[in-house]
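name: query_chain
kind: protein
chains: 1
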Amino acid sequence: MIRMGRVIGLKADRIAEYKKLHAETWPEIRATIGACNIRNYSIFLREPENLLFAYWEYVGADFEADVARMAGDPVTQRWWKLTSPMQEPLETRAKGEWWSDMEHVFFNE
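structure:
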C-alpha cells in the first residue's frame, strides 16, 4: 500500500459549487475510484488560501495503468469536465501535472 497526496488551487468563486458537487458524488465515480485500487480517498479544502489537498491509499500493483483506466472512463471524463474548470493548478507544478504531487514525509500508526 502506498499513501499519496496531491494539492491544487480552487477558484474562490467556485467553492460552493465544488463542495455541492462533491457532497453528491456520483456512485459511478465512487465505484471507479475503488475499481482502480484507490482506498480512503479524501479531499480537504483550506480557506482562505483555497487549496485542495487530496489523500488516498493505493493498493494496486500498477498505479500508471490504474490511472489510465480511470482517465479512459467516460463517466470520469464527464466528472472532470465539471470539476477541472473550478481548479487552479499551482504555478510550481511539474510539467504535465494538473494536481501537484506531494512528498510523503511522515506517518504514525
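note: The longest strand covers residues 2-10.
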